[in-house]
Amino acid sequence: MDIDSIRADFPGLREWTYLDNAFICLYPRQVREGYDEFLDQWMTFSPKGAKTILGEWLDKANHVRGMLADFVGAAANEIALTTCTGSGLNIVINGTKWEKGDNVVFPVNEHNPMDTTTLRRNGVESRPVKVEKGRVELSDLEKAVDDSTKLVQVSQVSYVNGFRFNLKEVSEIAHDHGAKVLVDSTQALGALATDVKEEKVDYVSAAPYKYLMGPAGLAFLYVSSEHLEDLEPDRIGWKNQLWDGEHAEEPLDGFKTAEKFEYGTIHFQGAYGLEKSLEYINNIGIDKIEKRVLSLTDHLWSRLSELGREMYTPPGNRAPIVSFYQNDSVEVASKLMLEKVKVTGREAHGGHIRVSSHFYNTREDIDLFIDKLSEYPA
Ligand SMILES: Cc1ncc(COP(=O)(O)O)c(C=O)c1O
User: CB of 184 closer than 6 A to ligand 1?
Assistant: First the structure.
């Protein structure tokens, strides 16, 4: 990895020691080319040949759906473009056929726990699983799951402290009871190589504005082809159902594509940007990125330990996020920000600071952060 030329692509790095990718990423300059292409095309109204401008946008959306599919090891018909992570999670909840007495299992510290009105109206029980010492024990998750469990919802990587689930084991537990696994991968994709088929998960929802370096307002949902016919679209519009005057016409491909969950106009400009971010990541290679991110995590962990900080992230965790307990965490993060060092400070969960590196960070970034942090008592 030619780190100097990579860093030169990120204008934000000229000013910032940026260690807050779990919040929002920095953009490389190449992403602007995508946004500009969209704007230029619209301003000059110049789609190619006889194609309408909408045809051009829909083609780009198709292309990006395919890129996302390749990126997570899925097929293109298993990907729907959505607006945010929560949108995909709700599509799964609302499209599932519930029966009174069913239950849904999720860790207490999920970012978007799916305890929804749909579930309450259908008499479905929510079963939060405890988090202890920063981790969810699979044995606790297993105790909560029974034959009435229809969904197990987890984040691949926790937004709070980076706790990373072994998705394959979660899938085994759920599937043994006939339940499906719904994963929020927003804090993982772009940093950790992920193959949805290897992990045997059923649904994945993710937003790309963190490690995927993509847009805000465009996200995606993976639905395993096994469930494409069963899961019903929870909202309808011109894109997934045409009305012929008297009847609804047969929906897209007889319901065999996740595109059926796209019901209206997509954040097309975002798709132009996301194409460039995915190209950028693919050009480096996600395996190389993961290796670098995890080695930065190791370095950060050992520097924080030297400083005597009490860790909130469990030991041995393999993820981009490292969190530690800190007095006056919000104030310390604000003061660091004034010195152009960006991390997240939170009062929740005992007051902690969350640090999250990406491939464009260096050990020097981490050492500089540690130097500044050492000025504050733990
Ligand atoms: C794990 C996780 N999921 C989802 C989100 C964002 O949710 P949405 O895309 O619905 O705004 C975040 C944002 O911090 C997150 O950390």
Answer: yes
Q: Where in the chain is the domain with CATH 3.40.640.10?
A: 32-282
Q: DSSP secondary structure string, 161-177?
A: T--B--HHHHHHHHHHT
Question: Domain spanning 32-282 has what CATH number?
Answer: 3.40.640.10
Mean pLDDT, the chain, integer = 95
Mean pLDDT value across residues 58-83 = 98
Is the distance from CB of 114 to CB of 95 less than 8 angstroms?
no
Nearest atom, ligand 1, residue 219 CA: 9
Q: Which pLDDT value is given to residue 34?
A: 97
Partnered with residue 311 across adjacent β-strands are: 324
pLDDT band at 251 (very low <50, low <70, confident <90, very high): low
Summarize the chain as % helix, strand, coil (round to 5).
40, 15, 45
Give the Cβ contact number of residue 121 at 10 Å: 9
Q: How confident is the model over 335-363, as pLDDT tens digits?
A: 999 999 999 999 998 899 999 999 999 99
CB neighbour list of residue 273: distance below 8 Å, 6 or more residues apart? 31, 34, 35, 38, 214, 215
20 Cβ closer than 6 Å to some ligand 1 atom: no
Determine the 3-state secondary structure of 222 from DSSP. Answer: strand
Q: For residue 206, how far is its CA from the centre of ligand 1 (angstroms)? A: 8
Instruction: Tell me the CATH architecture of domain 285-373.
Output: Alpha-Beta Complex (3.90)
Instruction: Give distance in angstroms: CA of 135 to centre of ligand 1.
Output: 19
> Percent of the chain beyond pLDDT 90?
91
Q: What integer is the mean pLDDT of 244-259?
A: 75
185 in contact with ligand 1, CB cutoff 6 A = no
pTM above 0.90, yes or no: yes
Cβ–ligand 1 contact at 124 (below 6 Å):
no
C-alpha 111 to ligand 1 mean position (Å): 6
pLDDT surpasses 70 at 366: yes
What are the residue ranges of CATH 3.90.1150.10 in the chain? Answer: 285-373
Of the candidates 59, 58, 359, 21, the residue with the CA atom closest to the CA atom of residue 214 = 21
